[in-house]
Design a protein that fits this description.
With 362 residues, this protein is of the alpha/beta class. The protein folds into two domains: 3-223 and 352-358, P-loop containing nucleotide triphosphate hydrolases (Rossmann fold); 224-329, Alpha-Beta Plaits, CATH 3.30.70.100. It has twelve helices and 14 strands. The strands form three sheets. It has a six-stranded mixed β-sheet with strand order 6-7-8-3-9-10, with helices on both faces. It is globular and about 75 Å long. The two termini are 34 Å apart. The relative contact order is 0.16. The structure holds adenosine-5'-triphosphate and magnesium ion (MG). Adenosine-5'-triphosphate binds next to strand 2 and helix 1.
Length: 362
């Protein structure tokens, strides 16, 4: 079966920023691909190319059997998109926003209204349906934007960080909505920074960094690739961090990472609780006091750290030079990209998303 989404060697530069550096991927019909990557990796740019909002410098893309570059208008009628930047009309109510999208898609008014009510219910917005969107909280807008993308049940959907900004209850509700869609046969490309989310929803995961796919596999395969478990220790005395690393190195599958300012040591291990107990005894025997110690499963940070040599989040904790430092330069071929985080383009996706929702340019 031909893939529902296929990208070959997409390249897109903005000035001297190479946002896409040869992205290739394919999503078989009826499956979910999770596009996982840190800030600035190229996720949104990939989505924008595949949804006809941006022309690549080179490469090829086919969505639902239609060439994206040759027939963008045909592609638009076959896809749904929910962008990273909410695209709702502030001055319309939630109900009016959704009804309008249905009507733009040529649904009859009665059907559009019924669909709007159904979606408001799904996204826990029924009580707020008659308030203008400008009175909505960030999470409510986000949900309304997602609901708008679902009005017409397109066969192929693109969701760019759908759950960013949602609280746990609404995140869970959205996951259920997505699972229902997929059961009904929708093909989905979803970007996320949460491994847990990709884990739950995606059949397959592509890890992107610096505009390239650097790993591909199921969640289990990726986790296996980065090793089973982690011990995390917070040492009480800053002066004893190095001693603690020395004490624990023998248990680590690969080099422990150290955050000096938080006195946190992370070591990949196998052997679970038994090794944890040994580690505690070892530290105790050497008189190294600890504030906290625990065993945990790999996180997205671990995936990035292992695959890319830098952590997912570029903001926050500053300045350490260990393996957890923000060593973008540590990779060969890192061509001095612009700001790794927060360098969003200003043209957002607002009007674009509506254009896609309407199946036509405005
Ligand atoms: N319109 C634009 N003009 C200039 N640079 C851009 C533009 N759009 C994206 N970029 C740059 O391209 C790179 C990839 O950006 P993109 O938005 O695709 O990242 P992302 O993976 O979606 O990141 P995030 O997790 O922060 O949303 C970044 O370096 C970004 O600054
Ligand atoms: Mg993005």
């Amino acid at each position: 079966m031909a893939p529902a989404i296929q990208a070959e060697n997409l390249v897109k530069t903005f000035g001297d920023v190479r946002a896409l550096d040869g992205v290739s991927l394919d999503v078989p019909e009826g499956t979910v691909l999770g596009l996982l990557g840190p800030n600035g990796a190229g996720k949104t740019t990939t989505v924008r190319v595949l949804t006809t909002l941006l022309r690549p410098d080179s490469g090829r893309a086919v969505v639902a059997g239609v060439d994206v570059l040759k027939h963008p208008e045909r592609v638009r009628s076959l896809i749904g998109l929910s962008g990273q930047y909410a695209a709702v009309d502030e001055y319309l109510t939630g109900f009016e926003n959704l009804t309008m999208v249905g009507e733009l898609y040529q649904m009859r008014t009665r059907a559009a209204k019924a669909r709007a009510l159904e979606l408001l219910e799904w996204f826990n917005l029924t009580e707020a349906k008659d308030r203008t969107a400008k009175t909505y909280s960030g999470g409510m807008r986000r949900r309304l934007d997602l609901a708008a993308a679902l009005v017409v049940r397109p066969p192929v959907m693109f969701l760019d960080e759908p759950t960013t900004g949602l609280d746990p209850r609404n995140r869970l509700a959205l996951w259920e909505v997505i699972e229902t869609l997929v059961e009904q046969g929708t093909t989905l490309l979803l970007t996320t920074q949460y491994l847990e989310e990709a884990d739950r929803l995606a059949h397959d995961i592509a890890v992107v960094d610096h505009g390239r796919v650097i790993a591909r596999g199921t969640a289990d395969q990726l986790k296996a690739q980065i090793g089973g478990e982690r011990i995390e220790v917070v040492v009480h005395e800053p002066g004893l961090v190095a001693d603690a690393v020395a004490a624990l190195s023998g248990y680590a599958l690969s080099e422990p990472s150290v955050e000096k300012n938080t006195r946190r040591i992370t070591l990949p291990i196998s052997g679970g609780a038994r090794v944890l107990a040994d580690a505690i005894r070892e530290l105790d025997a050497r008189g190294i006091e600890i504030d906290d110690i625990g065993l945990r499963r790999p996180t997205l940070d671990d995936v990035f750290l292992t695959l890319t040599g830098h952590v997912a989040e570029q903001e926050g904790e500053g300045g350490e030079d260990g393996p957890k430092g923000r060593g973008r330069g540590g990779r060969s071929g890192a061509e001095g990209k612009g700001k790794p985080g927060g360098a969003e383009d200003s043209d957002g996706q607002g009007p674009d998303q509506q254009a896609v929702a309407a199946g036509k340019e405005r």
